[in-house]
């Protein structure tokens, strides 16, 4: 085998999680729920179930976590 075959070298693989996070941040540099537009309700008003889930999902997407942890937390949010 020559050096072009790769063999069992673990250094030939990239860190996919950090690469995906970096690319996502480049594609979506600003969260769409930012302060540029007013919220429909006042901040002190309680959120309904759908708004609460949406807010938690938005926060989850901003976190840097493994895919399995993301899925676990996603299922928890949707079950709330």
Any overview of this molecule?
With 80 residues, the chain is an all-alpha fold. It is built from 3 helices and no strands. The chain has helices spanning 16-27, 49-62, 67-79. The model has no long low-confidence stretch (mean pLDDT 75).
Shape summary: elongated
Number of continuous helical runs: 3
**Main pleated sheet:** none
Structural class: mainly alpha
* SSE pattern, N- to C-terminal: HHH
- Overall pLDDT score: 75
User: How many whole angstroms does the radius of gyration measure?
Assistant: 19 Å
Helix content: 40-55%
| % residues in beta strands | under 5%
Uncertain regions: pLDDT < 50 for 5+ in a row? none
Q: How many individual β-strands?
A: 0
Distance between the termini: 54 Å
Write the layout of secondary structure elements.
Layout: H1 16-27, H2 49-62, H3 67-79
Keywords:
mainly alpha; 3 helices; elongated
Quick recap:
The protein is an all-alpha fold and 80 residues long.
């Amino acid at each position: 085998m020559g050096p072009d075959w790769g063999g069992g070298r673990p250094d030939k693989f990239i860190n996919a999680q950090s690469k995906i996070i970096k690319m996502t941040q480049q594609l979506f540099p600003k969260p769409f729920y930012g302060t540029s537009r007013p919220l429909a309700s006042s901040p002190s008003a309680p959120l309904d179930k759908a708004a609460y889930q949406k807010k938690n999902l938005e926060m989850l997407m901003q976190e840097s976590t493994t895919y399995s942890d993301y899925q676990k937390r996603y299922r928890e949010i949707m079950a709330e």
